[in-house]
Predict the 3D structure of the following.
Amino acid sequence: MISPAALIRRAAPVLACIGLLVVWQVASLVLKNDSFPTAVEAIRAIPDILGDKEALLNILASLRRMALGFCVAVLIAIPLGLLMGRSRSVAAFFNPLLMVIYPVPKAALMPIIMLWLGVGDITKTLVIFLGVSLPVIYHSFEGAKAVEEKMLWSGAAMGLSPAQRLVRIVLPAALPEILTGCRTGLVLALITMITSEMIARQSGAGNILFNALDMGQYDTVFAMIIIVGAMGIFLDTIFERVRARLVRWSEPQFDLPLSFS
Amino acid sequence: MKAPQNGRGSNDVSHGCENRRLSGRLLAKSVPYAKASDGMTVVSARPSEWVRPVTSKEPASAIIEIDRVSQVFQTSARRDHVALSDISLTIEERAFVSILGPSGCGKSTLLYIVGGFVTPTSGAAKMKGQAITGPGPDRGPVFQEFALFPWKTVLGNVMYGPRQQGVRATEAEAQSLALIEMVGLKGYENFYPKELSGGMKQRVALARTLAYHPEVLLMDEPFGALDAHTRTRLQNDLLNIWERDRKTVLFVTHSVDEAVFLSDKVVMMSKSPGRIREVIDIDLPRPRRRSELLLDPRYQKYVVDIERMFDESDEAGIAS
């Protein structure tokens, strides 16, 4: 038996989505602008895109670049961030470099990278890699810095070498923080993926979107925005599930009831 | 918490230190000898308790030697702060030694130096004649902050040390389960540290350290973060556990009661710079029971005398 409060809580995300679509539909009907299709039109265009083999291949190519960029970034950023967090000299060396790169929009680097590496997969994957790396490095760094000294001493007394302590104490202890960085990184991967395809127009989900824009197929544009948004929600949900399982030990023990029921 | 209430009588013998109470010496080098029965041994009030007659005992050998150790820290204002000044101390095997002093007297730093976690600015500490250059499994720390591995269960924490030492998983698990039972946490093997209270966490920390069989236990205000009731229970349990296998214990505390209750020897430290002020042999019978000890005038005298000495030094500090 589900209480009414719980029912509302569970239905809330769906209600929010429906509410947004209704507002969209009404606004579009009122404004009557060619470049602003109704929600129904946009949703109707989705099966057309997903049914088209070429469009599907484009989207899959995007996802492949994103996955590759994300994974390589995580594999490099986590060790680097942890080392920076535990060694002052490593931090002193890399910090200025990262501080320079951090505020630069990664897409702004694309023209240069395109000059060097062309408009192919490598360029786009590299931009995704750069976009993901920084938040992951930053969070790994903060996580490693916050590891309690006494925990490391306890490990040292058991005979763990400095390298073992980094892998077997700093890494797990910083894991909640690292995964927070990875979650930000995942969303950034999706953003840089689309932006990179917007600049180097060759293939991919972003390419479909902007080609449609050029040709004035606004229902396709909005359909692509919905598709990209849905991909984001899907990936984030999957990641959140994995994250919650990995750091079960650090989550609050009991869920405090959010309502006063 | 179960513990051998009927402690082995032999425990009463081995604290045969001279009854050199409150002798004002700076260097802690009491040479224990076979103690003549001078009335300080237990004549148990309970007839059920069997007390072995006092026999001669070999003099205990030094396990830790601290030789003119000084530690200077740089403060944030870039000024040198002398945390420890010229400390020399010898700790005998199987002794329970407390380092007692006000906060900021460097007592924890001294413990960290013995642990190998901190390198002294000058002087040296030795373990069994070997200079201490870093941490090692022969010296097991227990910290006030518990420092458990939060991603490991209670069992995982306790097994960590033995596994690191290369003990096979099944064997390590069996030993660890026994230890968890000994510290009174049977049934909590699969709990994560966040699910435990402070007292329980410290029990796990103790079991985790005991699991890799260090020769010396280094306890850094282990009960400092606990409420009074839990603290008392853990003191009792620690004594019971210690009286079973008598490891050497170096115990840092700022509580006079705690130091006198637990120790064979209390090292009193004074503040800025951290110096040893006094080394006091606590000649009270073992096994010690709180209920008996608190009524014992000798225990009370130790506590009062030590507190008075701290007060005097405080006043001297104000006057100067």
Observations:
- The longest strand of chain B covers residues 62-74.
- Chain B touches chain A at residues 112, 115-117, 134-137, 139-141, 143, 145, 147-152, 160-161, 164-165, 192-195, 208-209, 212, 214 (CB under 8 Å).
